[in-house]
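User: two proteins, same treatment. go.

Assistant:
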Amino acid sequence: MGKDGTSIPDEEWERFLREAEAGTPGAPEEPSARARMVARRLQEEPGRPEGWRTYRTAPRRRDRKVWYVVGLLAAVALLLVALDPGRVTGWFGGGSGGSGEAGALRPTMEEPFKGSPAERWDDGTAGISLPAARATGWMDKEEVARALDRSRDFLAASSLDPGVLRGERPREAIALINPRQRDVQDYLTAAFGAPSEEDDPLLLFSRFAESEVRLVGDVVKTRGRVTYREGDAGAVEVTTDVTYVYPVVRAAAGSDEVVRTIARREIVMSWDDPEKVVIEPGTFSLVSYKVDSTNGGCSTFTGYFTPGFGADRATSGPEDGPEVDPYDRSTSMDARMREAGDAACGSAIRS
């Protein structure tokens, strides 16, 4: 980007590449795939320092953990309703007990969040609170406030936009990502062209196949936090940690069994100084991104969440990971990933 805020012309961009390769002093750094690969190797070698510009996309297997509610839990719950209904009610976060309440706590088309802590959460971006802005790094207070607003705009465009949730390409969200960050652009191309475990769009975006499922109503419940600090070379580094709760039913006409898919994402964005990093105005560079999802599909890489319904959930066996409460935000994402280890899937105690 030029000093006047305009985009870099292609001829100037090519000149920059030649000068950077030759070691011209003062040339801005390009966020590169090489830097990201070096960062990954350094992370695997304890005690080694990280590079200056490290776009950390942690090993994808660790970043994508999927959890299922095991059918056995339903049977245990039915037994405990008779023995100790108050305890079962407590699991689902509501009511004072009573043998008839287990059925009453199930989500419905009219109350899709019934029986879950999300009933008390805020709707959409209202659940994603922003901190007060202060001058940080290369930005003054007003610029930091704009960066925070745009960071939340990305979350809305990637995980709350109705069209994206129906499976459309998240164009507005992608437009906020630095187009000069080549490794991320390669990931995006692959993720929407041929999704795989390595290139999974669900790491950044929430999407459901419209032919298979549809959302219930127009509300997504959220709870999350946004923090920021001065990052490398004076950048403003924004970290977002948000849990999204999506109620869905089968797409078939007349379907009314409501289940919930829950996704917790941590995304770190770097609002870089254009004097030091090659970046388009109004965009950020991705530092790292990871997702932990419940009832979204296990080891299926279609580019869409694939929630289970009815018999599919009742017959699923125990997975190889630990049990987890998808609504519990008392531990960090890093701690959650460490607990999960290398297990691809685990068991959620509720959805």
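Protein 2:
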Amino acid sequence: MDKPLSLKDFVDTWQELPFEYFREGVDIHHIRKTSPAVAILRYAPGAKVPLHLHTGLESILVLDGVQSDERGDYSKGALILNPEGSQHSVWSETGCAVLIQWERPVQILG
């Protein structure tokens, strides 16, 4: 990435972006596909991502709803940093949307 990417009014307009299937119950809008990848993940109520290992830093900003993992529940405005070597599973009982950045793809363990 040579130039900064500015998404004007992003906080107010991300809901209008086109999403596509990512995994059961989770849709994705790719902002940047190359490393570091940046996207919005939108979880349907009850959606889950199985246990996985982070092979690089993952940063998550909760945009709406509540995202949960084994360490707790994170509501709108929460910033979660999952360092390389950490692992967890993720779910959302109510549904949520998160802005996510990851250096390298995760390795699914479960």
